[in-house]
Amino acid sequence: MLTLETLKLLQQTCTTQELNALSVAAMRQELPLAVPNGFAMTSLEKFSPARYRARGTMDTKNAGDFADYVNTNCVLDEFVRIFVDADAMRATAILNWLIEGRYGGHCDNTATLTLEKTAAFKALQAVDGKTQTQLAAAEFFEDFAPMLKFFGKDAEGNSTEMSVAKAVAAVRKLSIDTSKKLESQQDQLSASKSTFDSVRVANEAFPSHVYFECVPYHGLASRTFVLRIGVITTGPAIVLRSIHMEQHNEDMAQDFVALIADKAKDIPVITGTYKTAA
Q1: What pLDDT shows up at residue 276?
Q2: Is 272:86 a contact under the CB 8 Å cutoff?
Q3: Which residues are registered as beta bridge partners of 34?
Q4: Helices in the chain by DSSP H: which ranges?
Q5: Alpha-carbon separation of residue 92 from 111, 217, 221 (angstroms)
């Protein structure tokens, strides 16, 4: 006759045997398994010798490393998509965008490239539109002298190129002329009096524009930026203002998209960003 304890033992044995069989089947099919611990869904991947699928995030600032990683780890070009955020100069490759060419992937195996600004371009942005002392402006010009070309006006008002040494000397030795003019008019029935102050840069040769040629982002081509040189006579101080920087930003964004398309070979490149939904 079977006792109550014997029946409970048989029930536990059967349950364990069934669970073991289900576990083996689940691992073979790479499926989660409901276990009798609150019946929570549990993945057995951590007990497997290898992951069921590749997933992770690779980040780099080097366009070549980004391209090598993407081209090496994509199974087929049609499974991958690259999204380029041109404003942020960032490209994200989703290596499991599609599975078997038809089914949407988990989109959790990615590589991200964020282009890094060069030191020269950072320095250019730091002075753009900022008021600087004569010393600071002169030292900036001296630090980046190999990248600069200066232009001023000749006696006839035509633009002419100046040497870096001459331009820097003019900035260091800035002369300001101040004059005051009084005009008075007396009529029989009225009288008027006015005063005019005139302030101007007295240097015979002073640069009006500077051309700054540099590589803005690592991986992009060199560009020439034009800066207007202004003088604040009350300082005196120097102000450098870039010309058409918005257009430069648009052009650099297009250069970035072209760079990714070239290095990605046949992988589709889409301008924009992508965020997976739950």
Answers
A1: 83
A2: no
A3: 41
A4: 4-29, 63-73, 119-127, 134-143, 164-172, 245-263
A5: 6, 17, 21
